[in-house]
Design brief:
alpha+beta; 60s Ribosomal Protein L30, Chain: A; 4 strands; globular
Length: about 190
């Protein structure tokens, strides 16, 4: 009888361990799957844009040619040789008045064929981060394509999107948002 009691205890312990390890009542163990990564535009912070001073601190004198080889990158960008273009809300098409600015930028780039630039795409604060990164990329790409169509060598230009992360105006109104919806041209090599 003692042997039979030990067998029942062993059997009971085995059943208990099985239930603890595998669950009971036909419930399936849930497996946690990692969802696939959501495709987004990579957010980058090039060294050239980390320490940015306010734009247009130094203005070139109209009609006077400036020797850009004597200027630092910061000075070159501060002088405002390349102008920003702006976009309507939730748009990335080039408006006629912005096309004229791109034509001026192209003339300056043609006159300075060694200059290389980054075209930054920016958005206002409305929309998700992911949406604004994608929209910023479309804006930068639209400006890039327009300059290529005007004869600027694509190897002289790169694009990046900052989405809503680098507003030029921190306000929360239409005036600020209109300023922030832009493509900014940053000279990175001369």
């Amino acid at each position: 009888m003692l042997m039979k009691g030990k067998g029942l205890i062993s059997l009971g312990i085995g059943v208990l361990v099985t239930l603890l390890l595998f669950g009971c009542g036909g419930k399936k163990a849930k497996t946690i799957e990692t969802p696939p990564p959501v495709p987004t535009v990579e957010k980058q912070t090039p060294k050239e844009t980390i320490k940015r001073k306010p734009a247009a601190v130094i203005k070139p004198i109209k009609g006077k040619e400036v020797d850009i080889s004597t200027l630092s990158m910061d000075e070159l960008n501060e002088m405002g040789f390349l102008k920003d273009i702006h976009f309507d809300f939730d748009k990335y098409n080039i408006k006629p008045e912005e096309a004229r600015i791109l034509e001026e930028n192209a003339r300056w780039l043609k006159a300075h064929p060694t200059v290389k630039i980054i075209i930054e795409g920016h958005c206002d604060e409305r929309g998700t981060n992911e949406y604004n990164l994608a929209l910023g990329e479309k804006r930068a790409r639209a400006a890039y394509n327009y300059l290529v169509a005007l004869g600027i060598d694509p190897s002289r230009m790169k694009i990046i999107s900052y989405g809503e992360e680098m507003p030029i105006d921190p306000g929360h109104n239409e005036i600020a948002w209109a300023k922030n919806r832009r493509a900014h041209f940053l000279i990175v090599a001369k």
